[in-house]
Amino acid sequence: MLLQTLQFLLQTVGGLFSLVLLMRFYLQLARAPHRHPLTQFVMAMTNFAVLRLRRLVPAWHGYDSASLLAAFLVTLAVSTLVLATNLLPYDFAHPQTWLGLCLLSLLELFRQSLNLLAGAVIVQAILSWVSPYNAITPILDALTRPYLKPFRAANVGGVDLSPLIVILIIQVIQMLPLRVLEQLFLMQLKMAV
User: Fold this and answer.
1) Chain segment 150-166, per-residue pLDDT in tens
2) Of 29, 33, 17, 32, nearest in space to 60 by CA
3) Neighbouring C-beta atoms of residue 84, cutoff 10 Å
4) What's the longest Cα–Cα distance across the chain?
5) What angle do CA 163, 69, 114 make, to 5 degrees?
6) Engineering a disulfide at 105: which of 51, 73, 76, 142 sits with its beta carbon 3.0 to 4.6 angstroms away?
7) Is the full-model pTM beyond 0.70?
8) Where are the domains of the chain?
9) Distance (Å, rounded) from C-alpha 49 to C-alpha 51?
């Protein structure tokens, strides 16, 4: 019971922090204004980790690679700690264990990216009906525009169905390929025991 609580806390706190790190990367990618309160919050929460990593990891083609690396390292640390607190013994000296952990961490980052996109699409769709001129609308538009644009023609009776289509695609991706990959990577870990 105590181990499950510890694992839950590790996954929740680590997952939220890696989500904020990913949000920093995507806000920079979408060229969100630095003066916006959301951007200020994300920067304040992540500066201590990202600014240190930036000294070691330069930007790659203008992308904030330090934020991505920090998110990966946090996810890898959480996966390792959860595995270490598991009742099954895992051989951390075996390279196959680390390969499985790295692959699971990359998969988790991709899953979190999909969740961020789904959340942004849902909030944007709700705000378009309730408060279309909200201050966060331009940021959400910049984050979701590349994904909604191919489906903008799906307009029925003046209602834009592109958010629904994108959410359905995200759900299918999470249900099929991500679960299959997760099972393969978990098998990789179990083979290293």
Assistant:
1) 998 888 887 889 999 99
2) 29
3) 11
4) 60
5) 15
6) 76
7) yes
8) 2-191
9) 6
Burial string for 99-134 (b: 16+ CB within 10 Å, else e) reads ebbebbbebbbbbbbbebbbebbebbbebeeeeeee
> Residues 56-64: contacts with CB within 8 Å, 24+ apart?
63/25, 63/28, 63/29, 64/24, 64/25, 64/28, 64/29
Tell me the pLDDT tens digit for each residue of 94-111: 888 888 899 999 999 999
Q: Are 112 and 78 in contact (CB under 8 A)?
A: no
Give CA–CA dist 6/134, Å, rounded: 39
Is residue 1 helix, strand or coil?
coil
Question: What confidence category does residue 192 fall into, taking pLDDT thresholds of 50, 70 and 90?
Answer: low
C-beta atoms surrounding 147 within 10 Å: 18
> At how many degrees (to 10) do helices 2-29 and 137-148 cross?
90
Residue 160 β-bridge partners: 155
Q: Which residue has the tokens 């390292």?
A: 73
- Spatial distance between the Cα atoms of 14 and 121, rounded to a whole number of angstroms: 24
